[in-house]
């Protein structure tokens, strides 16, 4: 650590978001990059459900402040001795690692293998909305569900995206359309249905009603892929009914209830989890795939294929605005992303 300090927002106690100490303004030591770490000057951050989950009330207390924030866009200030992918001055975007301090600080350390070059057509706020949801959507579709990038192979195939209007769904719709799939999204409100349609969903069904009759009503017998971005256990039976024989289901939402895997047996269905923090958390041999996919997402953004999903921008980055962002997210009615820009 250097003797210099920096501004950050974090917590010592895990409290409800309306408590003034749930997120507080801090002055902490400015870190120094070693190994493959980049020191990034943070220009914008975005808030995700993982932030509210980590911050949610529990009895433990931290002796040193816990800093959240897993969506960053900024500029490389300094590189560690083992870095080869970036240099000072590069504009970057990334989601970071859940087992390290988050990005709600003026400067932030991140392993360069999970960092991408910021899309050139976006400003920092627009770019900060993308990394976590893009990595999750990309890994879910292409690494976990094994969907090919070959449009011809996907011509008559369908994907059902449960919770299509959320952060990950917003990117997944666009990527699935790009590789030629027919996209059926679920939404329960007019506003979220309109958002999903606008991003390219071919059909919308309601996730509070049985899936199969709604699919039949739009002429769909079954779907080859399901990407579940909303309460896994609540949709389990519906997903088992709607999936095609030998189809694949991927979920990103952990469950407290036991799931009956036998429902998938007769159809030989694959069920797989996606967590975008797996690669950085376990330092997997293929960790650099996140660097590559973020660069590919940037290319698709700059090519007009993918658009960012910012819904609201708050300035500056400080505790009061981060509390406001958490509050918005906790309503569960957020369409698009909340981004915060600039430390004062």
Descriptive report:
The protein is an alpha/beta fold and 344 residues long. The strands form three sheets. Strands 3, 5, 6, 7, 8, 15 and 16 form a seven-stranded mixed β-sheet that branches. A six-stranded parallel β-sheet has the order 11-10-9-12-13-14, with helices on both faces. Strands 2-1-4 form a three-stranded antiparallel β-sheet, with helices on one face. α3 crosses α4 and α3 crosses α9. Helix content is 28%, strand content 29%. The longest helix has 14 residues, at 131-144. The protein is built from ten helices and 16 strands. The protein has two domains: 5-130 and 279-341, Medium-chain alcohol dehydrogenases, catalytic domain (Quinone Oxidoreductase, Chain A, domain 1), CATH 3.90.180.10; 134-273, Rossmann fold (3-Layer(aba) Sandwich), CATH 3.40.50. The model has no long low-confidence stretch (mean pLDDT 96). α10 (319-330) links the parallel β15 (310-314) and β16 (337-341).
């Amino acid at each position: 650590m250097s003797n210099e300090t920096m501004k950050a927002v974090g917590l010592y106690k895990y409290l409800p978001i309306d408590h003034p100490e749930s997120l507080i303004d801090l002055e902490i030591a400015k870190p120094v990059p070693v190994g493959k770490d980049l020191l990034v000057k943070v220009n914008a951050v975005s808030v995700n459900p993982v932030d509210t989950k980590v911050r949610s009330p529990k009895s433990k207390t931290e002796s040193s402040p816990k800093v959240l924030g897993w969506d960053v866009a900024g500029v490389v200030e300094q590189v560690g001795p083992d870095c080869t992918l970036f240099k000072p001055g590069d504009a970057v975007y990334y989601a970071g690692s859940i087992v390290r301090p988050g990005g709600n600080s003026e400067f932030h350390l991140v392993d360069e293998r999970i960092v991408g070059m910021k899309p050139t057509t976006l400003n920092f706020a627009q770019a900060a909305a993308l990394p976590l949801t893009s990595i999750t959507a990309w890994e879910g579709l292409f690494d976990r569900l094994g969907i090919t990038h070959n449009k011809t192979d996907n011509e008559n195939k369908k994907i059902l995206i449960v919770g299509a209007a959320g952060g990950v769904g917003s990117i997944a719709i666009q990527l699935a359309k790009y590789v030629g799939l027919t996209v059926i999204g679920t939404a329960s409100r007019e506003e979220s249905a309109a958002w999903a349609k606008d991003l390219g969903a071919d059909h919308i069904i309601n996730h509070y009603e049985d899936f199969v009759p709604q699919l039949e009503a739009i002429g769909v017998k079954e779907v080859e892929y399901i990407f579940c971005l909303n309460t896994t256990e609540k949709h389990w039976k519906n997903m088992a009914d709607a999936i095609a024989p030998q189809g694949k289901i991927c979920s990103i939402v952990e469950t407290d209830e036991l799931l009956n895997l036998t429902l998938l047996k007769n159809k030989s269905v694959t069920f797989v989890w996606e967590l975008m923090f797996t690669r950085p958390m376990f330092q997997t041999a293929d960790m650099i795939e996140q660097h590559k996919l973020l660069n590919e997402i940037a290319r698709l953004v700059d090519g007009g294929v993918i658009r960012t999903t910012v819904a609201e921008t708050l300035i500056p980055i400080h505790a009061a605005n981060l509390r406001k962002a958490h509050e918005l997210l906790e309503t569960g009615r957020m369409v698009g992303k909340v981004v915060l820009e600039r430390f004062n």
